[in-house]
Amino acid sequence: MQSVFITGTDTDAGKTFVSVLLLEAINRAGFRTSGFKPIAAGCEQTAEGLRNDDALNLQRASSHKLPYNMINPIALAAPIAPHIAAHNLGTRIDMQLVSKTLAALQEEDIDFLLVEGAGGWRLPTFLPSLKPLLNEKEHEDEPQKQPQKAEFLSEFVAQAKLPVILVVGMKLGCLNHAALTFEQIKRDNCELVGWIANQVDPDMDCYAENLASLHALIDAPFLAEVKHGQKSIELAEKTLSQLLA
Ligand SMILES: Nc1ncnc2c1ncn2[C@@H]1O[C@H](COP(=O)(O)OP(=O)(O)OP(=O)(O)O)[C@@H](O)[C@H]1O
Ligand SMILES: C[C@H](N)[C@H](N)CCCCCC(=O)O
Ligand SMILES: [Mg+2]
């Protein structure tokens, strides 16, 4: 099975929009797919539990049907940075659960697992700098613990050796975001399968020049261009075999 991590130049770059089109294209080519949204912030309370739109969209677009908890193990209600949402609940993001769920998914009978990040590449999963949790006072007399270090979702991607696809949300500011993200993925020793230009802003000035500038900035294969409102994506044979290698 091939697993791929979808990152973006920012939140709202179109990771979910593009992921759904990718899953549908790979389904059409006859492969068994599943989406995975390990960490989702911004959920509705339902009778079944917390539900996130990204995870539901990925679940719907997957040809291999799995229970919600496997598609989205960390579901946080507040639509804010996930580590802050967790902190405000007096808890922290359980990355062990994320790793265990990934391992379980990789045991499933599927050809392609698409893992959608949250926000951009350097999404924090834990930061020690937030003010102490309310119940932390009880532990004041305990010996000082080891200083805690910042943790990022990109570390999980590197540890799991997930190849990465970068979705560039085509809007003003994306050149800087794309260049920084590209450079950091390389510095983190992750494999960049390629990048996708996603036209989130239908009225972007000088779209063609911005696209040409991205080609100059990102030294990785250009996989696809997704126009605003595009309903499906055609993947080149080469791209399909690269994704499913
Ligand atoms: N090519 C497109 N055409 C039309 N609408 C788009 C396109 N790409 C994204 N959008 C819309 O832009 C919004 C943000 O896209 P999306 O939710 O996919 O971003 P994201 O990167 O997944 O964000 P998050 O960090 O919350 O996961 C959504 O309303 C989505 O439907
Ligand atoms: C709530 C939002 N739609 C995303 N799910 C989370 C975006 C987190 C961004 C964190 C940050 O880099 O500032
Ligand atoms: Mg999304």
Automatic annotation (TrEMBL):
Annotated positions binding Mg(2+): 16, 54, 116
Entry protein name: ATP-dependent dethiobiotin synthetase BioD
Role of this protein: Catalyzes a mechanistically unusual reaction, the ATP-dependent insertion of CO2 between the N7 and N8 nitrogen atoms of 7,8-diaminopelargonic acid (DAPA, also called 7,8-diammoniononanoate) to form a ureido ring.
Chief subcellular location: cytoplasm
Subcellular location: Cytoplasm
Any Pfam family the entry gives: AAA_26
Pathway: Cofactor biosynthesis; biotin biosynthesis; biotin from 7,8-diaminononanoate: step 1/2
One GO CC term on file: cytosol
GO molecular function: ATP binding; dethiobiotin synthase activity; magnesium ion binding; protein homodimerization activity
Keyword Magnesium carried by entry: yes
Keywords: ATP-binding, Biotin biosynthesis, Cytoplasm, Ligase, Magnesium, Metal-binding, Nucleotide-binding
Example GO biological process: biotin biosynthetic process
Catalytic activity as recorded in UniProt: (7R,8S)-7,8-diammoniononanoate + CO2 + ATP = (4R,5S)-dethiobiotin + ADP + phosphate + 3 H(+)
Residues the record lists as binding ATP: 12-17, 54, 116-119, 198-199
Cofactors that this protein relies on: Mg(2+)
Active site: 37
Protein family according to the UniProt entry: Belongs to the dethiobiotin synthetase family.
Subunit structure: Homodimer.
Enzyme class, first EC level, given as a word: ligase
EC number: 6.3.3.3
Membrane-crossing residue ranges in chain numbering: none
InterPro entries referenced in this protein's UniProt entry, alphabetically: DTB_synth_BioD, P-loop_NTPase
Xref: CDD domains: DTBS
